């Protein structure tokens, strides 16, 4: 599974940030290795440098073999919170997708 982390200019990413999120994704989504070929994470600050509630947005898109890509979005006060909320959502959606695949 290929993991790509993208941040906008208002989020201080860096290599440690990307390594940490990549490790978390690989650990949490390991059970989907057979069907997920790539995961892209996009973390943005919705309103620049202004500090407002829930202005950090995380979109996680999973490319599933022979299916349309699956994307989830979460907003929170920090990039980390948004990431973990989106990670929980993508796990639930992938669980449902795997169940549907098994049914057919």
From TrEMBL:
Q: Which InterPro entries match?
A: RHF-like (IPR036567), RHF/RaiA (IPR003489)
Matching entries from Pfam families are given as:
Ribosomal_S30AE
Annotated Gene Ontology cellular components are: ribosome
Q: Which UniProt keywords apply?
A: Ribonucleoprotein, Ribosomal protein
Q: What is this protein called?
A: Sigma 54 modulation/S30EA-like ribosomal protein
The species this protein belongs to is Flavobacterium cheniae
């Amino acid at each position: 599974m290929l993991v790509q982390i993208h941040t906008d200019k208002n989020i201080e990413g860096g290599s440690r940030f990307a390594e940490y999120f990549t490790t978390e994704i690989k650990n949490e989504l390991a059970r989907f290795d057979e069907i997920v070929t790539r995961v892209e994470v996009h973390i943005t600050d919705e309103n620049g440098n202004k500090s407002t509630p829930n202005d950090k947005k995380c979109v996680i898109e999973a490319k599933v073999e022979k299916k349309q890509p699956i994307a989830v979005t979460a907003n929170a006060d920090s990039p980390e919170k948004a990431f973990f909320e989106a990670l929980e959502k993508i796990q639930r959606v992938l669980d449902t997708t795997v169940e549907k695949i098994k049914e057919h």
